[in-house]
Here is the input.
Amino acid sequence: MAHDRSEAGRHWLFGDQLGPHFLRPDAEIVMIESRAVFRRRRFHRAKAHLMLSAMRHRAAELGDRVRYVRAETYRDGLEQAVGDAPVTVHHPTSHAALGFVRGLRQVEVLPPRGFLVQPDAFARWAESAGGGQLRMESFYRQVRQDHDLLMDGDQPAGGRWNLDKDNREPPPKGEATLPVPAPYRPREDEIDEEVRADLDRWERSGDVAFVGRDGPRLFPAGRAEARRALRAFVEKRLPTFGRWEDAILAEDWAMSHSLLSASLNLGLLDPAECVEAAEDAYRAGDAPLNSVEGYIRQVAGWREYMWHLYWHFGPRYRESNALGHDAPLPGWFAGLDADAVQARCLSTTLAQVRDRGWVHHIPRLMILGNHALQRGWDPAAVTDWFHRCFVDGYDWVMLTNVIGMSQYADGGRITTKPYASGGAYINTMSDLCGPCAYRPTERTGERACPYTAGYWEFVHRHRERLSHNYRTARAVKQLERLSDLDEVLGDARSRDPDAAP
Here is the structure.
């Protein structure tokens, strides 16, 4: 007997709730494409393309089951789609969106989907910390145990919970790219053509403005593409993922990374299927434990941890600024002007963001975030930049990652130390420094590395706080022994804050 969808009700899908796990059986589906979303923020063009392409692909898959509305705002779209009829929606992924739907009398908010850990389980774990610091490693172990992930009985597979020390190899010397198969590449279709034409038209009319370059599309826009990308990663790239997880090569933007974060954050993939596929590869002997554990830690550990801390800390968390940083983002950075930058690591990374809207976690943290931290840029502005300029960037992703980890603006609620480093780290973990105009070992003079000089200026600026942190106290002692400290600080003070290094 056929079900009457009008009796089953109406269910609203946001643009990051596109997988089958966000549907309600038999309900009529409502999707709203809001132009105001792109007016409020200057998004990366490739991000806007991916978002719209993914939504329109989902609508095409759902066929006559969906009412797809293009409107100025979500409120306008909901009025066009359902009038004042009741509608359900799964818990949205931002404070603003949750506040909006809870303010609509006709909307019933259902529990969140797309994550392994339920809110009540996280609350129990947080309470068990007894008011102490909420550390990811403890949370990650709890998730592994609760979900029987990579466990042998009550012990972690291989006898260790964390194989991070095995996953810090520098890139192979003399190689421009890793000896691994290329990542899965989706094919554009007529929907992508329509999206690109719409974005072109909106830009020409002055209706919206973007940064960065658009296309060809590199990331899945549909469930079938996302499933193929997951399978390709597990079969071809997961085995070498762990070994070079933290390494950087100038000509290899993808390395062995999965490139699945955008698919996960659009809701096209469920984290459970990703970690289960990785574990199956280990159990079958097709991928080593260090790679599989490293990947599972990213998905079942860090991603879950960031999601739950976003809600645990609440909206006021975005105002955190423990270091008192308030410098504005310079125009070359905000505009992704890689050609304005001499430092090869920063120029290369900015060009990759400009061209693709994506770089992996080490360039994000140790090149982009490290530079912003050293220069004292406003952490809220840095967070907004990451949100807008990355295809996998959403408020819940970037707020805790940037405020808490990258910029240390919460004073250590998430991490035990600021992620600031000199050029030596970048030199060790990449091939970027060799042809650079600057030298990672020099902190003064014309060839002084901006990261090395900037690191010591950062330590000096925050020496009082850092001297009381057991993980950074040694850096303060080293600072006090620098014979050229006055020259380092003088160079920093004379540096034009709006100029590229």
